[in-house]
Amino acid sequence: MRFEADAQLPPALVAWFVSQGHDPVHVFELDLTRAADVTIWEHARESGAIIITKDEDFAVLAQLRRPGPPVVWVRVGNSRTADLLRRVAAVWPRVTAALQRGESLIELV
Predict the structure, then answer these.
(1) How far, in whole angstroms, is CA 61 from its chain's centroid?
(2) How far is CA 64 from the centre of its chain?
């Protein structure tokens, strides 16, 4: 799966996606860190990427704009990168199953 990680998420998450066999990119790499959410949304839609973000605005876009990219909304509070990665790893099988079913908004809590 192709993922586009939003600015609030650490680049280490992108490395974790690679270790899981995914094709990730961080908005830092795309020079989109200061871009409007709609610009990031359109980039993900055009490139076939799934947005992973902590920004609730993308969850709203996922509900209002069709068609669009799926959104994985990380609703974990501020934490150390290692703790975030452990949390993502713990629920990742359920997240990927939801994406494979075609769900457009997956909340990671």
Answers:
(1) 13
(2) 17
Task: Assign 106 to helix, strand or coil.
Answer: strand
**Secondary structure class of 46 (helix, strand, coil):** helix
- Cα distance between residue 28 and residue 32, in whole Å: 6
- Spatial distance between the Cα atoms of 3 and 70, rounded to a whole number of angstroms: 10
Which residues does residue 2 pair with via DSSP β-bridges, in sequence order? 23
Q: Answer yes or no: pTM beyond 0.85.
A: yes
The number of domains in the chain is 1
pLDDT in tens, 40-79: 999 999 999 999 999 999 999 988 877 889 999 999 888 8
Residue 97 token pair: 């199953």
The range of the structural domain enclosing residue 67 comes to 2-108
